[in-house]
Amino acid sequence: MLLAMLPLLCNLRPLLCAQSTSVSIPAQDSTEQRFARLTAAVAQAQARMDAYQAELTELRKQLAVLRDQMATGKSSSSEAAENATAVSGGAESAAATPPKLEEIQERQAIEESQIATHDVTKVESESKYPLKISGLVLFNAFVNTRQVDVSASPGYALPGPGSTGLSLRQTVLGLEARGPHLFGATSHADLRTDFFASGTVSNYAAGGVLRLRTAHAALDWRRTEAFVELDRSILEPNEPTSLVAIAQPELAWAGNLWSWNPQIGVAHEFALSDSSRIKARAAFIDSSDPLLPGSTSNGPAVTETERSRWPGTEARIAYQHRESSIGAEVGVGGYFSPHRTEDGYTFDAWAGTADVRLPLSRFFELTANAYRGQALAGLGAGGYVNYFHFYEGADEYVHALDDIGGWTQLKARAGQRAELNAGYGTDNPFAKEIQAAAPPPDGSYYLGLARNRSFYSNVILNPSAYLLFSLEYRRLWTNFSGGPTNFSDVIGIGAGYKF
To answer: Which of 159, 218, 447, 450 is the most exposed place for a label (fewest CB within 10 A)?
Structure first.
């Protein structure tokens, strides 16, 4: 076929050359002469094209004949091969059969194994949208030189002897899902649980050991987000870094507004430049009533916020430079929430906050948060106390407890596989107000923390994407009303496997 087309290709070249020559018309020729030459060139090209079309038609016919001949030859060859195979006898066929059967059986076993693995690892939701399981299997060993509130993840010190033990109850299990588009926004949701449910851990008691930690669901547009969540307040976007303090985050009740509360709100970003933006968030919040130290029950079924019949409100505005995970960010926030006690007394909880995350260099980062307010127990401050009773003669009054506190952390990164963290936090209810909570005639007294401070230092190693190891030292100083300072040294070891 190629040999047959070579003459055609050779004939096309003179045509192209003739056309290019024919259009090279001297500038001095008249218009009539140019038109005549162009007409002649077009007629000549048309004649040659007709001739080439005839040759192509003839070549197609020859190709069709060749195809028929090749098909006939293949059929004859196949018949001859079949006849030759039949004559070759059964011995040769028997020798070839066993290896083929073994190969088929091996492939079948591999395929069955792959199908079984797929069935085990596949997670399917009813909505058919992607669902991912993630988590952290965390083992921690601890030594407390004096008594603490929760031995495996302490928040404050108590009078009494220390403790030593091992735990896997800080293991975290999570689900993450991506859903459909709605109103031009993408939807997603996630939740986290652990195995640290207890009647003595803050206000997060539950039956058994499984405990809901956080949950989020949101609609995301390009710069706007509408969300519902169970999480720490939006006033406290930063969190101290630790691998051994998971059930109660590092600096809980010592300056870290960490309590997980239901919230619903909206967030929006205002771009100032390619690398700078203003972030604004606002939400309604249902702040909880935490358990007092030594309590073993959940308290009233209705919280003080719910009894007031008005949800709390919170808002934060921040300036951010560069990406959210590595850039500098400075923010301020506010919180207000009406409360009503079981006895019918009313008071207001409020707070003003400030926070900063400042990369000092490639290897160092400073983080700090501070707050000033009253009745902050629902956010994880105020020594577990929102208000106290005081008396003037026979008259009884309720006063919201004023509080001030905060924390700071310095992070040092040693490459991509190791980091060192050191931080300090304090929560300090007003001493004069605690002193005013004098024992009333019925003999009750102020049960909350008068002051709580904590220092920690840890090193976290990440030898691979899935393995984490940590060694941490922590010092707790805790004061109750009218007593000496209680302290405890806490040494923790953590080993985690991420999945």
So the answer is: 159
Distance CA 193, CA 204 (A): 12
Q: Which long-range contacts (CB under 8 A, 24 or more apart) does 283-286 make?
A: 283/227, 283/234, 283/313, 283/314, 283/315, 284/311, 284/312, 284/313, 284/314, 285/233, 285/261, 285/311, 285/312, 285/313, 285/314, 285/335, 285/337, 286/261, 286/262, 286/311, 286/312
Residue 281 and residue 326: Cα distance in Å, rounded?
A: 20
Q: Which of 480, 481, 404 is nearest to 438 (CA)?
A: 481
Angle formed by the axes of helices 2-22 and 31-87, nearest 10°: 170
Which is more confident, 413 or 394? 413
CA 63 to chain centre: 64
Residue type at position 238: N
Q: Looking at the predicted structure, is the pLDDT value of residue 41 above 80? A: no
**Which 3-state string (H, E, C) describes the chain?**
CHHHHHHHHHHHHHHHHHHHHHCCCCCCCCHHHHHHHHHHHHHHHHHHHHHHHHHHHHHHHHHHHHHHHHHHHHHHHHHHHHHHHHHCCHHHHHHHHHHHHHHHHHHHHHHHHHHHHHHHHCCCCCCCCCEEEEEEEEEEEEEEEEEECCCCCCCCEEEEEEEEEEECCCCEEEEEEECCCECCEEEEEEEEEECCCCCCCCCCCCCCCCEEEEEEEEEECCCEEEEEEEECCCCCCCCCCCCCCCCCCCCECCCECCCCEEEEEEEEEEECCCCEEEEEEEEEECCCCCCCCCCCCCCCCCCHHHHHCCCEEEEEEEEEECCCCCCCEEEEEEEEEEEECCCCCEEEEEEEEEEEEEECCCCEEEEEEEEEEECCHHHCCHHHCCEEEEEECCEEEEEECEEEEEEEEEEEECCCCEEEEEEEEEEEECHHHHHHCCCCCCCCCCCCEEEEEEEEEEEEECCCCCEEEEEEEEEEEEEECCCCEEEEEEEEEEEEEEC
> Is the pLDDT assigned to residue 249 strictly greater than 70?
yes
* Gap between the Cα atoms of 44 and 22, Å rounded: 10
Contact by Cβ (8 Å): 126, 474? no
* Identity at 274, one-letter amino acid code: D
pLDDT (0 to 100) of residue 107:
65
Distance CA 328, CA 356 (A): 8
First-to-last C-alpha distance (Å) of the chain: 62
pLDDT band at 436 (very low <50, low <70, confident <90, very high): confident
Opening angle at CA 332, ends 330 and 338, nearest 5: 155
User: Can you say whether the dihedral through the CA atoms of 64, 70, 76, 78 is positive or negative?
Assistant: negative
Q: What is the pLDDT of residues 231-245, one digit of tens each?
A: 999 999 999 999 999
Assigned token pair, 267? 């967030």
